[in-house]
Amino acid sequence: MDIMYTSTRNAGEKATASQAILKGLAENGGLFVPERIPTLDIDPDTLAQMTYQETAYEVMSRFFTDFTEEELKTCIANAYDAKFDTAEIAPLVHAGDAWYLELFHGPTIAFKDMALSILPHLLITAARKNQVRNEIVILTATSGDTGKAALAGFADVPGTKIIVFYPKHGVSPIQEKQMVTQKGDNTFVVGINGNFDQAQSGVKKMFSDAAFAKELDAAGYQFSSANSINIGRLVPQIVYYVYAYARLYAKGEIQKGEKINVVVPTGNFGNILAAFYAKNMGLPIAELICASNENKVLCDFFATGTYDKNRPFILTSSPSMDILISSNLERLIYRLTGSDAARNAAYMESLAANGAYTVTPEMKAGLSDFYGNFADETETAQQIQTLYRETGYITDTHTAVAAAVYAKYKADTKDTDTKAVIASTASPFKFTRSVMEAVDREAYHAMTDFELADELGRLAKTELPQAIEEIRSAAVRHDTVCEPEEMERAVRTFLKLR
Predict the structure, then answer these.
(1) Which of 95, 114, 196, 351 has a beta carbon 3.0–4.6 Å from 143's, enabling a disulfide?
(2) Partners of 110 in the beta sheet?
(3) In 10 A of CB 424, how many CB atoms?
(4) How many whole angstroms separate alpha carbon 285 and alpha carbon 193?
């Protein structure tokens, strides 16, 4: 049975999977959601024998029902190939009291590769299916990792251009260098003098501008998104939770039907929402542990039922989580309203107008699948240092936030028996300074970022990822900087519009 997609803000807006992927964002700023969550009706013994690519097909084919088997398998084969440095694609590594799901073995050494390696193929296939003749302009805001992963995925893809906005002073030096050295005649990178929320709001504003869309169409362009607001980004993220569970079962670490906990460091809420969708497909997940850094708007929401972005924006050592407007939370709010688009739209209007909304007690009760907590900068650094000294395993700052919050979860709930999978969202090589100073500040604080990378490789007993070697001497190709209110002008300049 085909699955259709509907807007979280307009019950009358419907789309097939390919149409939803192509549009990226629904009208009026809504997000596309499946009208129902399909069931993953596959025996664990069968799942345990599957490769990552085979698992991906079983999950995605249940959501993307208007793609043919050949189309979807071709997209998967083109995405999950030798560009990943391990045949497993997403290895599970045991360290301390948890299993770390390493999602950083792709070309840009961050978890965004898991979905952004396939999105260009899904998008081009969707365009063909819907007889689109316009050039597709990928318009994306990034808090650090999405930008490079999207740029790498779409660089020189025929029929596309990609424009990435990032907070000029809100990403790590290596994250920035990865973006500004990106090759490809169809790529454009812009730093804004603001934070991620301002970049994301600017992108959403352009998506919602009907007059601008008409002008773009006349010039032979149309916007689409590579952010996790695109359902073509979200669904591929479900795959690795299913794969992780199957690997644990295959290893004999869990019994058939035994539940696991999943711990996810999150800012925009997409990664943990994917785990929530996996649970609703039937994957035996007990608790969804939502880990925040000091920008703990999600942690506070789970505790109080009030989402309030009216607070200081804090720059931390885990910049991909430095977010106060968690866009993907809207998909959960919509579900909690009983799929009432009008009620959800009212909450989002309140967020836009007042910076806050409060859900009903009944809706708050629906959050029982989630545990929220946060780790501050000191706790994050201590977690990196402790895990390294006790096990020799080194995590990045975002994964350390998750591990620190997992420790708080166990202390709060006394749940020490349920196996836990921690989503390890980035390579420590992407945040070398923060990681190495956490290991030993006095020994490493005077080194350059690339000296730190070399030393990290020695400590971790591993070769430097190719992604780091490539940018060591790469030339800067993108040096545009603008104010948040100048974002549309930057787009017009790149597309040679008036």
Answers:
(1) 196
(2) 426
(3) 30
(4) 41
Tokens representing 300 are: 């506070």
**What is the C-alpha separation between 302 and 286, in angstroms, rounded?**
17
How is residue 426 annotated by DSSP?
B
The bridge status of strand 5-7 relative to strand 14-15 is: antiparallel
Distance CA 374, CA 377 (A): 10
Residue type, 226: A
How does pLDDT run along the chain (498 residues), one tens digit per residue? Answer: 799 999 999 999 999 999 999 998 898 889 999 999 999 999 999 999 999 999 999 999 999 999 999 999 999 999 999 999 999 999 999 999 999 999 999 999 999 999 999 999 999 999 999 999 899 999 999 987 788 999 998 999 889 999 999 999 998 888 899 999 999 999 999 999 999 999 999 998 999 899 999 999 999 999 998 878 899 999 999 999 999 999 999 999 999 999 999 999 999 999 999 999 999 999 999 999 999 999 999 999 999 999 999 999 999 999 989 999 999 999 999 999 999 999 999 999 999 999 999 999 999 999 999 999 999 999 999 999 999 999 999 999 999 999 999 999 999 999 999 999 999 999 999 999 999 999 998 888 889 889 999 999 999 999 999 989 989 889 999 999 999 999 999 999 999 997
CA 471, chain centre distance (Å)? 23
485's CB contacts (< 8 A; 6+ apart) are 202
Sign, CA torsion 159/165/168/172: negative
Supply the pTM of this predicted model.
0.92
State the pairing for strand pair 420-424/260-265: parallel
Instruction: Identify the burial level of 487 via C-beta atoms within 10 angstroms of its C-beta, where 0-12 means exposed, 13-18 middle and 19 or more buried.
Output: buried
> Which architecture does CATH list for 1-498?
3-Layer(aba) Sandwich (3.40)
| DSSP class of 429 | G
How buried is residue 376: exposed, middle or buried, by Cβ count under 10 Å (0-12/13-18/19+)? middle
SS3 352: helix
Query: Which amino acid does the sequence have at 438?
Result: A
Q: Which two tokens stand for residue 301?
A: 């929401």
- What single letter denotes the amino acid at residue 408? K
Question: Largest alpha-carbon pair distance within the chain?
Answer: 62
Task: Decide: 52 and 243 in contact? Cβ < 8 Å.
Answer: yes
Let me know: does 126 contact 18? Beta carbons within 8 Å. Answer: yes
